[in-house]
Design a protein that fits this description.
mainly alpha, elongated
Length: 78
């Protein structure tokens, strides 16, 4: 019975290792995903740096959460 448990553990580790290797191979040359709602850089401009993109995404998420919170406000029942 311990042999089956050990073989199962080794099989799981092999599968996880293969998945991790595949993920790292695709992360070696990442393509920048387009963020919905984000403005594309003008033809004369270069791509925005990672910090600017991260700040834009954070602002978009904050704005979306604020809009959702505003839509959910309920009137007081005083």
């Amino acid at each position: 019975m311990r042999v089956f448990g050990l073989l199962g553990l080794v099989l799981v580790l092999v599968i996880v290792g293969m998945i991790a290797k595949k993920q790292l191979a695709t992360a070696a040359a990442p393509a920048l995903p387009s963020v919905p709602g984000a403005a594309a850089p003008a033809p004369g401009e270069g791509p925005a740096d990672a910090r600017t993109q991260a700040q834009q995404v954070q602002k978009q998420v904050k704005d979306a959460l604020d809009a959702a919170a505003q839509a959910r406000k309920m009137p007081d029942d005083n």
